[in-house]
Specification:
By secondary structure, the chain is of the alpha+beta class. The chain has one domain: 3-Layer(aba) Sandwich (Aminopeptidase). It has 4 helices and 7 strands; from the N terminus they run E-H-H-E-E-E-H-E-H-E-E. It starts with a strand and ends with a strand.
Length: about 170
């Protein structure tokens, strides 16, 4: 049975393999969003320790991961967000195994994030994605996320587009 659960320390080897597969796949498609330095094992272990990293898996395979928390990068302060800066969740480090791409895994992880917003009675989901990743840009647009600005991160040539989606109460 495929499920989305909080990651455990025991998952780290499989999580890093999934990330490495994603980095190699992005490079093969001329997308230089991630590399051998980011996201690294130290970051992923901190996400696990903070109970912010979720994995979509079954007994045999890891299909995707996502970090969901309230942490906003300092660069976000320059963005004209649609909602106040409280009552929001931020999606970080969404990754889908290259073997599972195009099968609804990313969509399921994003719907999971939106459900967490509803459970917490929050207002919105925020995220940023690399402007040089046309697959991700199209993905978030299809899910109803609205581009509200852009930020630049140290060591990255291109901008990261900031997206937000107001989540309706169910």
């Amino acid at each position: 049975m495929v499920e989305i659960v909080k990651a455990k320390i025991d998952d780290i080897v499989d999580i890093m393999k999934l990330i490495n597969d994603c980095v190699n796949n992005m490079r093969a498609n001329n997308i230089f969003q991630w590399d051998e330095h980011y996201p690294n094992q130290e970051i992923m272990l901190k996400d696990i320790e903070d109970s912010n990293l979720y994995v979509m898996k079954d007994d045999n395979s890891y299909f995707g991961i996502v970090t969901i928390n309230e942490e906003q990068d300092k660069e976000y302060k320059t963005v004209d967000w649609k909602s106040e800066s409280t009552g929001i969740l931020v999606v970080h480090r969404l990754a889908v195994s290259p073997l599972g791409q195009g099968k609804g895994i990313g969509r399921s992880l994003m719907l999971f994030a939106e459900d967490l917003v509803r459970q917490k009675n929050y207002k919105s989901v925020r995220l940023d994605t690399y402007s040089g990743n046309p697959i991700a840009l199209s993905f978030y647009k299809r899910l109803g996320y609205e581009k509200v600005g852009e930020v630049y991160f140290t060591g990255r040539e291109l901008a990261y587009y900031c997206y937000e989606k107001i989540i309706e109460k169910s």
